[in-house]
Fold:
Amino acid sequence: MNEFLKQFLIESRELVDQAVNDLLELEKLPNDAERFGNAFRAFHTLKGGAGIVEFAAMQTALHCAEDAFTAARAASRPLSAREIGNCLLCIDQVVDWLDAIERTGDLPPDADAAAVVARFTGSPTSEPNAASPVQPAGAAWLDALLREHPAAARSAQTAVRYRPDVDSFFRQQDPLARIAALPGLLAVDVAPGDRWPTLDELDPFSCNLVITALLAASPAATTTALGDDLRHCDVATLADRPKTAGPPSVAQPAAELLGAQLQLLAATAEPYQPGCVASAGLVAANVLRHVGRLEEAEGIAAAADRSLDEGRPQRLVEAIRGALEGAPTTAAAEPLRVKRQEAIQTLRVGTDRIDTLVRLTGELTVAKNAIGHGAKLAEAASSALGATLKNQHATLERLIGELQRAVVGMRVLPLRVAFQRFPRLIREMSAELGKPATLVLEGEDTEADKAIVEILVEPLAHVLRNAMDHGVEAPAARAAAAKPAVATIRVRAFRDGEHVLIEVSDDGAGIDIERVRQVAQERNMMPPEVLAAASDEEIIDLIFAAGLSTAAQVSEISGRGVGMDAVRTAVGRLGGQVEARTERGQGTTIRFTLPFSVLVTQVMTVEAGGQTFGIPLDAVVETLRVSSESIFPVGAAHAIVLRNRTVPLVKLAQVLARGTRQHADESGPIVIAKIDGELGALQVDRIGERIDVMLKPLDGLLAGLPGITGSTMLGDGSVLLVLDLAELMQ
Amino acid sequence: MTVRLNDDGAIELSGRCGVEDAEILQRHLLAQPGSAVDWSGCEHLHSAVIQVLLVGRPEVRGLPLNTFLRTHIAPLMERTVE
Structure:
């Protein structure tokens, strides 16, 4: 099962539980607004997830349930018992589908939301996308195409017939290039639109082509990819055709892999490269073994050997082609699938347990450092004992290092994991809304606590949907405002001290503050006199309140007013904040500020005023020495000039060790650090070493200490205070 | 030059052949019926050029550099040669 589906299953199951609990509570206390909001959010988020994995039937079913919530909220009435019953029925259906996904590793191909829709509307209704251009199979062109490409036909989900306009060459179009760019292309055929003319009567500039293609992508993905050209296309869905091969989840990747080997061999045919032949043979044989076609696997392996002997890839190419054409036996594939199910079991462990592990590892590290200190002392007293202790300490150090990495690995993920879904989301929304947009991702390698990365996906997706739906203007409006036709949505992540910041900005119209004010008034979200006195910032902040949506229409994408309050709730639960900045006509930026609760930090130790401090290493740009004359006073503060820039300078001993008032070394080394994007200089007495520490937030009496972000214990038992540079530089 | 005659009389398609190359290729094929087309240096063929190849059915030599052409268009050429 792919990563998306796995994640989707885990999330959906949690949301289903939540929705059921809330619905059952609502049945007892129909006027409980919080429960109502929670249940509504659960349905909304479930639907969002279904959209991400392209599960149309589930989206349709949940959409009906959402409509019931929307209607109830609009009429300021509770859900009726009947509506609650229908919502629960909808959830039952969703659970059935989730079970099917878990069993088969793929979306149920025959999923149908009609029963759920009928319950909500009281009458049988077809799927809303019945008007879509996707046709059932059965056309003559389709049969010919499938006959011509039997191997591709087995793994194809979609067939396309594209009849470009006769004058399409004139209009700078390249129809075959269009087809070549479709996702999951398996086979292509080109036929004359009319009959082929003779060469001398051919008009080379008029297009007389009919292109047919088989694709491994879903019909939905294909229609999206075809975009405007869809009106020249027939799209047939092949999912419900009986297949000679096993289910697509097994056959399709295998066929793709075999095809990829053929492509590799073709691409490297000249000059002959034995390495490519060997690796292609190996992969092809493994693929066949995996799908249970053992004899053919041996055949491939033998063909690869012979190809290597002959110094020509030909035999292997033929063998792989043969394997692609030959029908795999379903009997062999069946027992294998059972085995796969057992293998994908994962264990979910509560974060509190992992936190305990993290804390214990931190304490072990401190204890290990103390032993190192002890070993040094022992070495001075008795060399034999010292050597033994030192050896044991080295072993301990290695093991604890591994433990630390493993524990940290459980908790830390790059934000890429959260971001990887977004390009697809934007692409699909862009097609759906007819608003061209590109997504720019920055700082994907920024790491954050696993809990944060996982939980952020939905809030970020909400914000992106909002940006596309409400932020980015329709093409005509953008043209009128002289903006680039293609909108830019930017997701930028960076670490700032003990925080991870993520900004989602669009270059759209910005938030219409007056409109928000008006809607807030209409919905009585605030007493009128408070609303009248509210600043623009306070008004903008209302977008995070429950029940505010300024979109004129409730769409599939967003605009139900459950999005942004869900975002704030989710981020708040993580101990973070979310805020919006907007500029009329220029766009909106939503900024997430989240704690970076990962517990290992690299610090550089420095001494100042006779005390040792730690500086987070990722803030340090460089260290240098300057003569005391180069430090000049600016009012009450100091600054230095670094490469023609004035950089403010803080003398650490004076700032932190006020009480001791030791004579600070005027020519001490200087640490240049980057704080909030600005450079700052920190003069210290001495620069120490780099160490990994498990940072603990200050608590108790020390909690309010300014300029300190946390503490850690050093090997000799002393406490190292780690500086919060942003606060120091203020 | 994306369409040219090489030393042994074959028509050579190389690099990225655009829509304007269709007419040039057609002229070459009409001027010398039966000449082969060498497309082994070809990175991209516009649909119009492929159309000329499918109509003229010359003998094609080599395999183009582009994966799409190699995987999906080359077999069509073989089929039309007969």
